[in-house]
Structures are given as structure tokens and as C-alpha cells.
Design a protein that fits this description.
The protein is mostly helical and about 300 residues long. It has one domain (about 15-165, about 170-295): Orthogonal Bundle (Farnesyl Diphosphate Synthase). The protein has 11 helices and 2 strands. The chain is globular.
């Protein structure tokens, strides 16, 4: 799974150029980010087509930038994905630049849901993404703080999927804070799981959570982080039922999706095939909003 920023798992080259671009430019994650922004717009801070599109474009820009940095490094990892980016470096630079500019234009004039705290997250992500190096080519800065990688990835995804709103959040509703906490736990769990699959690529100095606590400890933590997500949907359904509306498929189906995601996390192993991470786990970002949409159609 590609949620963990700066990782480099192999991607299977598709049979056509377009499919290769979709896979290597993180098209699935971009669709997932856009779907997540739509879904949060249904249950939390309001959004519109600009916010939804911006979430997808920001994902392409962010992960594309990270791949470019990794592809330019002197110790390039043995990843088909990174080598693909290296071969198409000029096109990737253009794609990243255009997506970044489009994201800024789409978000211009919209409100930050959590005000200055949102800017703190953006600043920390910027410091994390910069390829800072010290003497002898060793990386320095936020990347070297144990466990911070997955935390910042989760914070970044939370900001992208709900940090910008079409409404004026002068007084942020407490409910929006709970939604943000649930989102953070969900993305934190997926980022930790991603790092398990990337153990063979991540250098020891990165000090990811699986490197610090081991695979078993990381899995336990990731599953625990899914508990608030599942509990959120259980409580939501209980409140709906208490109001006399009965079972709501738009809540029950995402609840089932969250349980499936927790199960996939519990079953993860370092030696799982590439599709387990790149399709199954990455797809969980898209699955829950899709189930929410399907529930609305019932």
C-alpha cells in the first residue's frame, strides 16, 4: 500500500501506457482521496466539486513529488515503481507541477476547517517532505524521529480529506473534531500497515513503527486504531435508530467496510503479495465512501 509517504513498493507495469500511468501516478489513491472528501462532506465539513477534485489532485502531486525525490536519490531502491518514475522523470515533474497549481487554484478562497492548526500540519508536512541531508549524504530532520512518518502521513490525509471547507468554520463544531479524529485513526492504521509491507525497502534510519515495535506490535497498534472508526459507525447507527429511523444502509455499509479493513490489517504480513498492499489495502480508502454512496441509493 502506498499510503506511507516516501515508500517504494514495486508496482506491476500495466499492459498499456495509460494503465501504467494510473498505477504509478497513484491514480487509485487519488480516486480514494476524492471519494473520502465527498464522503466527509456528507457527514462533516461541507464541500463541493472543487474540494473533491482538489483532494485527488493534491494526492497525485504529493506522492508524485515523493517518488521523484526517491528516484533521484543515490541509493535508489530496487522498485519497479521508482524506476518507472525515473524513466519518465520529465513527464512526472510536469504532472506534479500542474496538479499542485490546480490544487491551489481550486482551494483558493475556501476556509480552513481548523484554522491555524491546519497551517501547522501543512508546515510539518513540508518540512518532512523536503529531502534534507547532512554530512556524508545522511538524511536529517523530521524523517529521523521514530514513528513520526506514519503520524504525519495520517495528518496529511486527514487535512486533504477534510481540512478545507466551502463553509466558514469560524466556530468549529465539536462534531467536526470527532470526525477528524476518526479520519486520523483510519489513515494512521493504514499507514502503519503500509510500513509493514515496506520493511524490505525502508532504511533502518527511517525508524518506522514496524521497525521500532516489530511487525506484531505494529499490527496490534493498527487494529486498535481501527476501533474508534468502527465505534463511530456503531454509535451513529444507534443514534439514528434511537430517533426512530431504523437501520440506515449509508451507515451500516461503511461499518461493514471498516470491519473488513480491520480484518485485512490483522492479516497483513511482510511477505504478502504486492496486490495485497497496492490494491486491497489502498482500495480501503475508496471502499468506505463507495459503500456509503451505495447505502444512499437503497
Amino acid at each position: 500500500m502506498a499510503l506511507a509517504a516516501g515508500t517504494g513498493r514495486d508496482k506491476v507495469e500495466g499492459p498499456t501506457f495509460l494503465s501504467a500511468v494510473f498505477l504509478n501516478a497513484h491514480g487509485l489513491l487519488a480516486l480514494g482521496a476524492a471519494a473520502q472528501r465527498w464522503w466527509i462532506g456528507e457527514v462533516g465539513p461541507a464541500t463541493n466539486w472543487k474540494g473533491i477534485l482538489a483532494a485527488g489532485l493534491a494526492t497525485v502531486a504529493g506522492y508524485g513529488y515523493l517518488r521523484l525525490v526517491r528516484a533521484d536519490g543515490p541509493d535508489i531502491i530496487p522498485s519497479g515503481h521508482i524506476h518507472w518514475v525515473r524513466r519518465h522523470r520529465t513527464a512526472m515533474i510536469a504532472l506534479v507541477g500542474l496538479c499542485a497549481i490546480a490544487t491551489v487554484i481550486l482551494c483558493w478562497g475556501q476556509a480552513l476547517v481548523f484554522g491555524s492548526w491546519s497551517l501547522v500540519v501543512v508546515a510539518l508536512l513540508g518540512l518532512y517532505l523536503l529531502p534534507l541531508q547532512g554530512a556524508h549524504g545522511r538524511s536529517i530532520g523530521l524523517r529521523e524521529i521514530p514513528g513520526l512518518k506514519a503520524i504525519l502521513v495520517a495528518a496529511g490525509w486527514t487535512f486533504v480529506t477534510m481540512g478545507v471547507s466551502t463553509s466558514d468554520p469560524t466556530h468549529v463544531a465539536l462534531f467536526d473534531g470527532w470526525v477528524a479524529a476518526v479520519q486520523f485513526c483510519f489513515f494512521f492504521a493504514l499507514a502503519i500497515t503500509t510500513d509493514i509491507g515496506d520493511l524490505k525497502y525502508d532504511r533502518p534510519g527511517l525508524k518506522t513503527i514496524p521497525q521500532v515495535f516489530g511487525v506484531r506490535g505494529a499490527k496490534v497498534l493498527a487494529v486498535i486504531l481501527m476501533v474508534p472508526v468502527i465505534w463511530y459507525y456503531i454509535v451513529s447507527q444507534a443514534l439514528v435508530a434511537a430517533s426512530g429511523m431504523g437501520m440506515r444502509a449509508m451507515i451500516v455499509l461503511p461499518l461493514i467496510g471498516s470491519i473488513i479493513a480491520a480484518g485485512a490489517i490483522a492479516l497483513v504480513r511482510e511477505d504478502r503479495p504486492k496486490w495485497y498492499f497496492a490494491i486491497l489495502l489502498d482500495g480501503m480508502v475508496l471502499l468506505i465512501p463507495l459503500l456509503g454512496w451505495l447505502g444512499q441509493q437503497v
